[in-house]
């Protein structure tokens, strides 16, 4: 499937744009599942000012979707209409500041922030070693692992709204809860400031190694997957509910519930986005029928079905 090419019209509206516009860019290669259709327009802004300029002049009737590293994402087979924004090099800097703080762009992978903190002797961010995504997504969903969450260490973040205005949000402004933040959906995070505490580099790196070993022993991290599929319902663990419903190893097409960790879906090779999302819905239905618990997707799903 392909969409009408609107790059010429957009370029005419945006003569000072420094970022890159690409029409009908395949998105499958940008996601860990390796599935999905194209973006009508993929925009990679040069920096925060370029992003704000773009959004301020983009026609209001053109939808905007933001993607990060694609680790927690299903792009549907029909692709994504409008503009898909993916932050790149201009949002990848990490700066160590006084008071055991780090300021980082939101295109930075979680694991890279954890390593930078460790190298600086800053403790409190090692949990990010266990999260396969970028900081933008971590802010949006209060990402956490191994006893830590984003809300535990965030001081503030910068963001641009759909009209191109820049905002600075404090931790309290996020309204964090389990795997959720309450900030408006149109805000695109550009950078964040984190607070750590004094630590020993060797001890922090050892902690990160333990996180890595635990992930490798229990999760299918070398497969085409999207990380944890469902949020843990109150009082339950999602994987236990999926397992009890007999879904371990369940397949739809080439999509499979991981036999290793059944809160992970994997593309065994040649699966479509419809296969993967449909398999997730099969699992949700079986769990609801058996336990009465309704699982909520943790993986984001965007775009148009084929």
Automatic annotation (TrEMBL):
Pfam families with a match to the protein in the record: FAD_binding_4, MurB_C
Compartment(s): Cytoplasm
Active site location: 179, 228, 298
Chemical reaction(s) catalysed: UDP-N-acetyl-alpha-D-muramate + NADP(+) = UDP-N-acetyl-3-O-(1-carboxyvinyl)-alpha-D-glucosamine + NADPH + H(+)
Cofactor dependence: FAD
KW Cell wall biogenesis/degradation (keyword) present: yes
Keyword Cell inner membrane among record annotations: no
Alphabetically ordered keywords of this record: Cell cycle, Cell division, Cell shape, Cell wall biogenesis/degradation, Cytoplasm, FAD, Flavoprotein, NADP, Oxidoreductase, Peptidoglycan synthesis
Molecular function GO labels: UDP-N-acetylmuramate dehydrogenase activity
Record-given protein name: UDP-N-acetylenolpyruvoylglucosamine reductase
